[in-house]
Amino acid sequence: MSSHDVMPEMSLYQPVRVEDAIGIANQFADRGWLVGGGQDTYGWLKDRAKSADALIDLKGIESMRGITETADGIEIGALVTLTEIANNPLIKERYALLSQAAVKVASPQIRNVGTIAGNVSQDVRCWYYRRGLNCYRAGGNLCYADTPEGMNREHAIFNASRCVAVTPSDTGPALVALEAQMVIDSASGQRVVSAEDFFVGPNVDITHTTVLAPGDILTAVRIPAKWANAQFFFEKVADRNAWDFALVSLSAAMRVNNGVIEESRIVAGAVQATPRRLTSVEQAVRGKARDEATANSVGNLASRDANPLNYNHFKMPLMDNLVKRALRGQA
Amino acid sequence: MNPKLTRRRFIKGVIASGVAATSTSLWYSATGADRPAGAVERLLSINVNGQVRRVDVAPQETLAHTLRYKLGLTGTKLGCNRGECGACTVVADDVNIYACSTLTHEVKDKAVVTVEGLRAADGTLHPVQAAFVAELSPACGFCTAGQVMSAFALLKNNPRPTREEARQAMSGNLCRCGAYDHYLNGVMRASGQLS
Questions:
Q1: Has residue B48 got a pLDDT over 60?
Q2: How would you classify the pairing of strands A54-57 and A32-35?
Q3: Interchain proximity B171–A39, CB inside 8 Å
Q4: pTM value?
């Protein structure tokens, strides 16, 4: 890959109010680039795989900071860093699923600046796409990963539509499990989208991974009290213990009463372009004990409809085993 | 020819630029300003190693570039320049960050510490540096400045880490010589848990 020492020339804006940021974003439209922590931004620009006329640095916007308790749960400002989430006493106490996911992201240096909004909005990791090839996701008309010779060990086993890349986010599946709400501001006002609807697959929009359009700013993430202090399970399997993206991750929130799972939300990461809710598993374990027998009874339900590529069949048993671990409890 | 320049893209581009030009002119006429509010000034005051430095910084310039090529602080190394290896690690407001993946304009309100800022005025090495020397932590030494800064940040926030905590805290710094355990020994020594 070609290497460039410096960033390409572009202008930089550092607004301090959301309205100003939206105004600048709208002016530049698809030539403006919103920056939070910037950790998924600068590589694209340095590699000349993507470009922009203006960077709009949001970090000066005070109203997008902080973790606050609300009438129904908590609100996390979009600029809250992954380190802050991992260390926040309120999140650790009530929504430990999210702090466990946050601490597994990348490396300490990246978590120190990387934001929650950036982690859920980051682009996919397919190396063909990141190389700047004109693939489907880049607006072209072929996929380099889904070919007999394509290197697709890390790619999707579900719901591929031309593009076979997967969601790289560790916190995304956790937020879907927690039924989080994403607060999006734009010139036309504010809208709130469930985490489940926030992520979009290639069948809906092949060049984006979220519903965010130019001029939209994800300003906060709300977590309802519904899953506070539930039983949680998070595990991320990657080739390396640090600074790596998941091969498969599993986020589960379970409401357990007298040992019985009354309700659960089980979500897998890195198996398709969006966090994948395992609704068949959720239904199968409803009303059952959270124990080894239940875990075994689920079998390969999670991976049953998978459509693996040449090199990623291993994700099927991996995913099934993670589901098993989540269900058998702490023992 | 640019492989990405297809006919469809070209036409879309022409349309988009027309729209942008129109909206830009509307913006200018509405505000009377040269550019939208919030555009950065190039001349910047940044606090590096306790000193305020005035420096001319391009909008897109990374902190690693400013430190090395504008301020002469070449202790901060550039390895991958992609936020992966950690050689460029510096500390800003007590947390370690990748200087290659930070715009200088992003740290204008922060106190930046580089490896040059660690030793005392009389030349005494910082405890982390002294411990790394005592434990023969570096092999080739290229990653050392970054390793020192990550250890410095760790001990600032957690003066007596366990070895596992130290391992996690240092996990954003690669060492091609594979001297990880030697660096960990250094961190444990610097925290007074190894004599």
A1: yes
A2: parallel
A3: no
A4: 0.91
